[in-house]
Amino acid sequence: MDPATIIGLVMALVAIVAMITLEGGNIGAIFLPAPLILVFGGSIGAAMAGGLLSDAKAAAVALKRALLSKPASPDGTVEAVEEPERRFAVGVLWHPEAGEDLALFRALVEEARAYREARQAVRAS
C-alpha cells in the first residue's frame, strides 16, 4: 500500500476522532451503525454529487489500485508490477534469486502446477 494512502486514511480517522472529542461525544459511538452510515455514506454521496458517474467509477478503480498496489522505492522507481486479471503475470526489478525469500518462486511453481493440472483435466475429458 502506498504511504500516501495510509497517511490519508489516518488523517481522516484523526479528523473524525477530533470532531467527536471537541463536541464532547464518546469516541466509541463512531462504531455504531448510524454514525458509520452517516460518515461513510455521506462522504461517498457528497463525492459522487460533485462529479459525474464516470468519475465515481474511476474513483472506485483508483481506490482499489491504491489499496492493492505495491509501494515504490524511495527514489520513485516502481520495483514490482503485477496484473491481477491474468493467471500469473509478475515483473520485478530486482533479482529474487539473490535473496532468501523464495515466496515469488513458490508462487510461480504453484501456479504452474495448477495450470498443468487444469490442462490435464481438460485433455482427459
Can you describe what's shown?
With 125 residues, this protein is mostly helical. The protein folds into 2 domains: 1-69, no CATH class; 70-125, no CATH class. The protein has 4 helices and 2 strands. It has a two-stranded antiparallel ribbon. The chain is elongated and about 65 Å long. The chain starts with a helix and ends with a helix.
Labels describing this entry:
elongated, 125 residues, mainly alpha, 2 domains, 4 helices
What's a concise summary of this model?
The chain has helices at 3-22, 33-49, 53-68, 103-124; strands spanning 80-82, 90-92.
Helices and strands, with pairings:
Layout: H1 3-22, H2 33-49, H3 53-68, E1 80-82, E2 90-92, H4 103-124
Antiparallel strand pairs: 1-2
